[in-house]
Amino acid sequence: MAKNKKMEPLEGEELVQKVKDLGDLSKEEKAKACGYCTFTKNGVERVNMMKFLNALIDAKGIELDITSNGNGRGGRTASYRISVQSNGNLLIGSAYTKQMNLQPGDEFEITLGRKHIQLKQVDAEEILEAS
Fold first, then answer.
1. Among 33, 46, 71, 126, whose Cα sits 20 to 30 Å from the Cα of 114?
2. Distance (Å, rounded) from C-alpha 93 to C-alpha 95?
3. Is residue 18 part of a domain?
4. What's the domain count of the chain?
5. Containing domain of residue 98, as a range?
């Protein structure tokens, strides 16, 4: 490929077939041959391995984000179970607070039952009246 010439990256079945045809070449060489490289202002070639590998995964139909929560970030998913920590605290993780769109400073009233805890969000108006 000529220097600074932009080749449109291959996708789908065309990408899969090209990778198969390239046989024993290295990953970087395959990525370049499939159009997954760019040139900097100084003419230095850069291979876009992540774009290449992601395109290959998509072309193969492999679903990695099965339970995507829509916020675009990885992390733990909510298990809806917690346990008492060694210091006696119960920690409700960020997976739950994000799901409920809670913000730092939101307040709750705690009601204890025999084997349950109920949280009732305190409205901003109630906080102002109590002050």
1. 126
2. 5
3. yes
4. 2
5. 77-131
